[in-house]
Design the sequence.
């Protein structure tokens, strides 16, 4: 389900179950990683890109729109 959408983000919710909490944690991680891989492969411009720049020794996160 799409639980939230803005002009720059989409939040998805996936419901799943497993036999125990350890298996559920592994399942959640696998589902999240495979969803991201699917988007990365099929919609290469669909994920944000963040770059780090060091200016005077302090790291600064910079979001880059391409």
Sequence:
């Amino acid at each position: 389900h799409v639980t939230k959408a803005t002009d720059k983000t989409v939040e998805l919710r996936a419901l799943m179950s497993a036999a125990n909490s350890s298996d559920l944690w592994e399942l959640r991680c696998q589902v999240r990683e495979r969803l991201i891989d699917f988007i990365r492969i099929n919609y290469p411009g669909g994920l944000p890109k963040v770059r780090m720049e060091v200016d005077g020794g302090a790291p600064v996160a910079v979001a880059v729109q391409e």
